[in-house]
Design a protein that fits this description.
about 375 residues, four-stranded antiparallel β-sheet, two-stranded parallel ribbon, elongated, binds cobalamin, binds iron/sulfur cluster
């Protein structure tokens, strides 16, 4: 089988990829990505926030040259998986938060990695020998968007995401680095964003830097609700609306999605019950055992119980949800995590219609609280009511 012409091999790899559930597949060379200067600028300006793994010397070198990941790499198979599920209405009358679409289902890292390994097994079977390879889906030191663009899957939009002219940007990227030379596909070199700036205008925190074509992660709701382990900066909280895990605004407004997104039929990407819009009070009050059970195998476990309770408190404050008030008051008095008590104080101060009650609640908490960080949050929340 090793005498198969490689053009035929690349076609059969693509057919197999589609059979395994991948939506798009292209092949590119392992040459360094051309926009490394943008990546360096992103790091140098601190736009990576606290994501130290994006800035380490070792990972910078590997992103600049994937031969450092797989010496002898001859081609890169780039795959995209459609996860668009169509619209899902909230399933509860209680106040609910919004979760980024990519996290409505089982953790895609597990789902896609298994499929990548199946594709590698197919390649080895077809060639009749083992290959040297690495598989990644958001898990490796690779500028995935650059390789996807070069493999002809789409272009990188002003929101910095890979947009396929066929189905838009609701896709997850993955790659197989291979020591087998394969014919490479033509890149998509046209910037189909044109004069559109909808994502930039819609981003509530102005995280999209138009001129640099980069995201400032410090300002991005996705970063703050998922990766941020400490307090969310006070000046950003009121702009999060009801987003509690990730953010899809810059994709929801993109005309390439409103026109071309196709709902997936892939069972692995269908939403878990109640996940697109979970109840905020439930999240705020969840004990560890319930959190672990509810989010087993879900991307949501990344933010941990305390991160999710923190995010739920912020969303309840932004909504000034009537039946959230008592839960926030209890959280301020009793939650075992100082992070959650502090954000509950901020959230209560957003209930401008209840200003006198909130003052009393905050004063009472001030008398009992011992944690320095929470005390500061309570004092700031109280001061904001006097302003
Ligand atoms: C770190 C990270 C984040 C950070 C920072 C995001 C960012 N844009 O930098 C945070 C936590 C904020 C984040 C959020 C999200 N992420 Co994220 N994230 C990543 C990760 C791990 C690295 C991204 C990166 O390298 N950033 C560094 C900067 C410098 O890169 P960049 O913004 O892409 O900029 C490049 C281009 O703009 C390019 N460039 C500039 N000018 C030009 C011109 C041309 C012509 C070209 C080709 C390139 C180019 O230069 C830069 C260097 O290559 C990737 C996985 C990976 N390994 O690539 C996933 C990834 C980008 N994320 C993904 C997703 C789904 C999301 C969210 C939608 C999740 C959510 N719902 O909340 C949001 C979207 C936010 C957004 N608009 O970017 C997907 C995107 C899929 C797609 N369609 O592109 C990826 C690819 C993961 C995956 N395997 O599918 N993410
Ligand atoms: S994910 Fe949300 S906060 Fe981040 S850049 Fe897009 S619209 Fe802005
Ligand atoms: S909203 Fe407009 S500018 Fe933003 S990524 Fe989509 S097409 Fe490009």
């Amino acid at each position: 089988m090793s005498s198969l012409p490689n053009l035929h091999l690349s076609q059969t790899i693509k057919q197999k990829a589609f059979a395994l559930g991948f939506t798009l597949c292209g092949i590119t060379s392992p040459e360094p990505p051309p926009h490394l200067a943008h990546y360096a600028q992103w790091i140098d300006n601190g736009y990576h926030a606290e994501m130290g793994y994006m800035a380490s010397e070792r990972n910078r070198e590997r992103r600049a040259d994937i031969q450092k990941i797989l010496p002898g790499c001859k081609s890169v198979i780039v795959l995209a998986t459609n996860y668009y599920q169509g619209d899902v209405a909230p399933q509860s009358h209680a106040p609910t938060g919004k979760v980024g679409r990519y996290a409505w289902n089982d953790d895609y890292h597990d789902v896609i990695k298994a499929r990548l390994l199946d594709l590698v097994a197919y390649i080895e079977e077809t060639l009749g020998h083992a290959v040297n390879q690495r598989v990644y889906t958001d898990t490796g030191p690779i500028l995935e968007g650059e390789f996807a663009q070069r493999a002809g899957l789409g272009w990188l939009g002003k929101n910095t995401l890979l947009i396929s002219p066929k189905i838009g940007s609701w896709v997850l990227l993955s790659e197989i680095l291979l020591d087998v030379a394969l014919p490479i596909d033509d890149p998509i070199t046209t910037d189909h964003c044109g004069s559109c700036t909808r994502c930039i205008e819609a981003c509530p925190t102005e995280a999209i830097l138009e001129d640099e074509r980069l995201i400032d992660a410090n300002k991005c709701i996705s970063y703050q609700t998922i990766e941020q382990k400490a307090a969310i900066p006070v000046d950003l909280r009121s702009q999060f609306e009801d987003w509690i895990f990730g953010c899809d605004i810059c994709q929801e407004v993109c005309p390439w999605n409103t026109r071309f997104a196709i709902p997936t039929l892939d069972p692995a990407f269908l939403p878990r019950p109640h996940l697109p819009t979970p109840e905020l009070v439930t999240l705020l009050e969840m004990e560890q055992a319930d959190f672990s059970k509810a989010f087993k195998g879900s991307p949501i476990k990344r933010t941990k119980r305390r991160g999710m309770a923190r995010n739920a408190a912020v969303a309840l404050g932004n909504m000034q949800a009537a039946n959230g008030f008592a839960a926030l008051q209890t959280a301020l008095q009793q939650h075992d995590e100082p992070l959650v008590r502090g954000h509950a104080a901020w959230a209560l101060a957003q209930y401008t219609a209840e200003i006198e009650t909130v003052k009393q609640v905050l004063q009472a908490a001030l008398a009992l609280e011992t944690n320095e960080m929470v005390l500061l949050e309570i004092k700031n929340a109280y001061a904001s009511l006097l302003a």
